[in-house]
Automatic annotation (TrEMBL):
CDD domains: AR_SDR_e. Residues 8-268 form the NAD-dependent epimerase/dehydratase domain. This is NAD-dependent epimerase/dehydratase domain-containing protein. Keywords: Oxidoreductase. One of its GO terms (molecular function) is oxidoreductase activity, acting on the CH-OH group of donors, NAD or NADP as acceptor. Gene3D superfamilies: NAD(P)-binding Rossmann-like Domain. Coiled coil: none annotated. It comes from Talaromyces atroroseus. Belongs to the NAD(P)-dependent epimerase/dehydratase family. Dihydroflavonol-4-reductase subfamily. InterPro entries: Epimerase_deHydtase, NAD(P)-bd_dom_sf, NAD(P)_dehydrat-like.
Length: 348
C-alpha cells in the first residue's frame, strides 16, 4: 500500500521528538493523525505543519493512561507510532502516580485499542529509551558495550518506594513499559508486531509548536544553559550526568524506517550517535556561533575526550537493518542552538 493511502497514528504529536516524527512521516507522503491533549495544542500543531494541511488530522486524547483512551483515535489507521509518555524528573510528587503508571498504562492502552478496534494495523512502533537498557547500579560500567541485549533490571517496587529518586522511577517506567509491551504481544492474539526505539539524550532543533524558552524540554534546556544570556564565558563547564546522545532527526527517521522496513518487526533498536562531554558541546558552539561566544563557557578547549572508564555503545543493528547514518555532534548541537536563538528572537 502506498504511503498516501495509509493513515499513521502518532501519539503526543506536539512533543519535541514527536514533532520531528510527524514531519518525517508527512514528508514521506503518509496521512498522519496526531494525538494532542487539547484543542489549543491541536491548533498550534496545525500551524507548524500548515504546508501539509491535507495530510494532517488531529485527535484529542486528554489522558493516555485512561482506559480506552485511544479507542476512537485508532479507528481506520494503518500503523501506529506511540511517542506519548511522561518525561519528568523534577517536581515529581508520587513516582507511581506521576511516572510508573502513566508510562505503563499508556503503552498498554494503545496496544489494547489497536487489538480491539484496528485489526488492519500490522505494526506498532513504540518510543522506548536508553533508560530501558541502562543499569543504574553499574554507573559508568567500564568496559561494557551497551546494545539491544541490555535491560534495566530495576523492579517496580524499588522505583515506587517512598523516597526513591524520580530519575530511577523514570528509567524504570521506560523499562517496564517496554517489557509489558513485549509481554502483551506474546500473551495475546494480535494482528500486529511491535518495534521499539531506544534513544539516549536527544538533542537537536526545536520544531514543535509548543516550544517556549520558559518551558523547554529537558534536553533543549540542557543546551540552553550553556548559551543563555545569563551564562558567560568564565562559567564552569558542567560535569556529565549522562554520556550518550543522538540527534532528534535521526531518532525521527528511525521511527519512520522502523515502520517501513519489514525486517524491523519484533526488534529493539538502540538509536545513538555515541558518547559526549559538555566540553565538546561548548567547543562546537564557540567555533560555529561566534556571535554568542561571550556567553558560552570556555572551559578547556580541545580537552573534551570522553573518559576511558565510561561504557561504550554498539548501534550496528540500527545501521544494518534501518540503514541509519548518524549526524555528527557539531551539527546536532549547532542546529539546536540556532533554533533556541530563534526562540529568543521570537520572545524578545
Amino acid at each position: 500500500m502506498a504511503p498516501e493511502d495509509q493513515i499513521i497514528l502518532i501519539t503526543g504529536a506536539s512533543g519535541f521528538l514527536a514533532s520531528h516524527v510527524v514531519d518525517y512521516f508527512l514528508r514521506a507522503g503518509y496521512q498522519v493523525r496526531g494525538t494532542v491533549r487539547s484543542s489549543a495544542t491541536a491548533e498550534k500543531v496545525r500551524q507548524t505543519f500548515s504546508g501539509y494541511a491535507p495530510q494532517l488530522t488531529l485527535a484529542i486524547v486528554e489522558d493516555v493512561a485512561r482506559p480506552g483512551a485511544f479507542d476512537t483515535a485508532v479507528n481506520g489507521v494503518h500503523g501506529v507510532v506511540h511517542t506519548a509518555a511522561p518525561f519528568q524528573v523534577f517536581g515529581v510528587e508520587d513516582n507511581e502516580r506521576d511516572l510508573l503508571k502513566p508510562a505503563i498504562d499508556g503503552t498498554l492502552n494503545i496496544l489494547k485499542s489497536v487489538r480491539e478496534f484496528a485489526p488492519q494495523v500490522k505494526r506498532v512502533v513504540l518510543t522506548s529509551s536508553f533508560a530501558a537498557m541502562f543499569d543504574p547500579t553499574k554507573d559508568k560500567w567500564p568496559g561494557h558495550v551497551y546494545s539491544e541485549l541490555d535491560w534495566n533490571p530495576t523492579p517496580y517496587e524499588a522505583a515506587a518506594a517512598e523516597g526513591a529518586p524520580a530519575g530511577l522511577a523514570y528509567s524504570t517506567a521506560k523499562s517496564l513499559a517496554e517489557r509489558y509491551a513485549w509481554d502483551f504481544v506474546k500473551s495475546n492474539k494480535v494482528n500486529f508486531d511491535i518495534t521499539t526505539i531506544m534513544p539516549p539524550m536527544i538533542y537537536g532543533p526545536n520544531i514543535n509548536a509548543t516550544a517556549d524558552l520558559a518551558k523547554l524540554n529537558t534536553s533543549s534546556m540542557d543546551i540552553y544553559r550553556l548559551m543563555s544570556p545569563q551564562s558567560k564565558s568564565s562559567d564552569p563547564v558542567p560535569e556529565n550526568m549522562f554520556w550518550s546522545f543522538v540527534d532528534v532527526r535521526d531518532v525521527a527517521e528511525a521511527h519512520l524506517r522502523a515502520y517501513q522496513v519489514v525486517e524491523a518487526g519484533g526488534e529493539r533498536f538502540f538509536i545513538c550517535k555515541g558518547n559526549f562531554t559538555y566540553q565538546q558541546f561548548v567547543d562546537a558552539l564557540r567555533a560555529h556561533l561566534p556571535d554568542i561566544k561571550a556567553r558560552v563557557p570556555i572551559g578547556n578547549p580541545g580537552a573534551g575526550e570522553v573518559p576511558s572508564d565510561v561504557y561504550t555503545i554498539d548501534t550496528s543493528k540500527s545501521q544494518r537493518i534501518l540503514g541509519l547514518k548518524y549526524r555528527p555532534l557539531e551539527e546536532t548541537i549547532v542546529d539546536a542552538a540556532r533554533s533556541l536563538l530563534d526562540l529568543e528572537a521570537m520572545s524578545a
